[in-house]
Amino acid sequence: MSLPSGRKPASLQSSAACFRAKAAFFGKLGSAKQEQVVAANIDTVFLCMSLNQNFNLRRLERYLSIAYDSGAEPVVVLTKADLCQDPEDKLAQVRTAAPGAEILTVSSLTGDTDAVLPYILPGRTVAFLGSSGVGKSTLINKLMGTSALATGAVGTPDKGRHTTTHRQLLTLPNGAFLIDTPGMRELGMWDSDGGIDTAFQDLLELTRACRFSNCTHTAEPGCAVLKALADGTLDAARWESFRKLKLENASAAERSRYLDAKREKFKSISKTNKTNRKSGS
Q: Are 62 and 129 in contact (CB under 8 A)?
């Protein structure tokens, strides 16, 4: 594999995008959710999904929504193509779930990974995101030309074993920067309304064809969404995914406003108490 070469590597701070995500952590933090910076200063984010048991269109739509909101360029990378019996069918499904996004198919086992090379340019920063076991570390090792990252043994004939436990910033031989991230068990919305609209631009255009501008798409006459669902031109699962992400994002925004108001209230109470103590009242 030959990486693109060129100009002197730029500073990490020269990249414009900041990829933000709200993640849910399990274990000592329980099920609490909070905003978390996954990676920053990214030019391109590779959203990795394997073409085996990890294949999940709804998860991909979630990743795309947050990626679009980040300002980075999202690229869908379908890994483990050698384990897929019907790659063309899977690819067609991904095109429906990710309209307008660049979609690449790779296989680290066969060495067919050249599709990602045009994005690995000197001075630019790329990040790999995806669930555990999709083959991110194996693909990165192919790009590095070394075994820089640990990779787990194959647990079953078509399921990898998660090995990355922390974020890593690596410098590729051609001067590009690469960020590897741990597989995320859950990725939630956090102020990602614009990203959702971009990821589901086709559905937004469909809603504009409704007879009423305030259509709720539940029972109104002349609803373009209901018509498309009825005649099968709109995938019900994709529409439900859109609705779910919108509701989740609105809920997170409301929770954030409540917590901000609560913090301001206690700041005001604390300030009043300090003033009273100083005045001796």
A: no
Gap between the Cα atoms of 81 and 139, Å rounded: 12
The label of the residue with tokens 């483990």 reads 80
Best CA proximity match to 125, nearest among 174, 78, 80, 163: 174
Q: Which two tokens stand for residue 267?
A: 């700041």
- Which position has the token pair 């109470």? 269
At 169, is the pLDDT very low, low, confident or very high (cuts 50, 70, 90)?
confident
Query: Does residue 169 sit in helix, strand or coil?
Result: strand
Checking if the pLDDT of 23 tops 50, the result is no
**How confident is residue 110, by pLDDT bands cut at 50, 70 and 90?**
confident
What's the confidence (pLDDT) of residue 72?
A: 87
Q: Which residue has the higher pLDDT, 14 or 178?
A: 178
β partners of residue 18: 40
pLDDT over 80 at 124, yes or no: yes
pTM: 0.73
| Residue matched to tokens 């998860």 | 59
Give the residue among 60, 74, 79 at the shortest CA–CA distance from 139. 79
Residue 70 is predicted with a pLDDT of 83
Query: How many whole angstroms separate alpha carbon 165 and alpha carbon 167?
Result: 7
Distances (CA, A) of 37 to 26, 94, 184, 190: 17, 27, 13, 11
Phi and psi at 141, nearest 5°, equal: -60, -35
Please name the residues in contact with 48: beta carbons below 8 A apart, sequence gap of 6 or more.
Answer: 77, 79, 128, 129, 130, 134, 135, 136, 139
CA distance 263 to 278: 23
Contact 116, 178 (CB under 8 A): no
